[in-house]
Amino acid sequence: MNTEAVSRLVFFFGIFALIAIWERMSPRRSMTTSRKVRWISNLGITLVNPLVVHLLFPILAVDMALKAQEGGWGLLNNVGLPFWLKLVIGIVVLDLVIYLQHVMFHAIPILWRLHMMHHADLDYDLTTGLRFHPIEIILSMVIKLSMVAALGPPAAAVLIFEIILNGMAMFNHGNIRIPLGLDRILRYFVVTPDMHRVHHSVIIRETNSNYGFNLSWWDRLFGTYCAQPAKGHTAMTIGLSQFRNEKRLTLPWLLILPMVGDPGKQPINLH
Q1: What is the C-alpha to C-alpha distance for residues 55 and 213, in angstroms, rounded to an integer?
Q2: What are the beta bridge partners of residue 176?
Q3: Which structural domain, as residue segments, surrounds residue 150?
Q4: Is the separation of the CB atoms in 112 and 266 below 8 Å?
Q5: What does pLDDT average to over the chain?
């Protein structure tokens, strides 16, 4: 196993354990459904997705960055900037791409069908941040590889970005309590659990907000920021109005959800 894979696994399991303990010790909300059933489904998807990626893609993002550097591809490989600045630009631009990709998956009906599996979770905890349909993961990988080839960021920037993104996805989906004063400060820089939880509200206008996963700047800059859910964090309903049956949200159903599920009122139809 190479250094990249080891680094990613160490950070993944370390952050997962930290957030899981935090959720147990200081939960933000009471769970409304079976934790066992949800975790079997959500972690099942988490195991499937890397297998699909490794089967379909002969090259991953860090390897693409190395090949781009060797071949002189991409913007940053053709400008004379200090390494540290290329590192920062690479991380920030890749984060912006993830924000725009997220908006796109809400705005385009066929992509929303894939992404709604993520939103169909009836509760909200760190495993929600790992729950994405395999086809969405495939499309995301195509976008990521294309962007890395076009931008030409250092391989270190790509690795750091992927570790941060994975860790932040678990953090900002965590059912964890953060003092409100600290949350107000943190969300000027990063997406906090209270900030992103609004995005998982059953109320569509709230679903259409707070798309960021890591840096919180993009939602403020592009006018998609919503400070708080209308019903408050403890009383708000999580999920989608058309998917409220816990028995229909097991792993087999999640995999076929884009094909057989009701997409409801996609955000694109509300404008």
Answers
A1: 26
A2: 27
A3: 3-25+39-270
A4: yes
A5: 94
